[in-house]
Amino acid sequence: MDYQQNVGGIDRIVRGVLGIWLVAVAISALFDEKRVTAATAAIAGAGLLRNAQAQHCGGNALLGIDTTSDESAK
Question: Which residues are CB-contacts of 71 (< 8 A; sequence separation ≥ 6)?
Answer without folding.
Answer: 8, 9
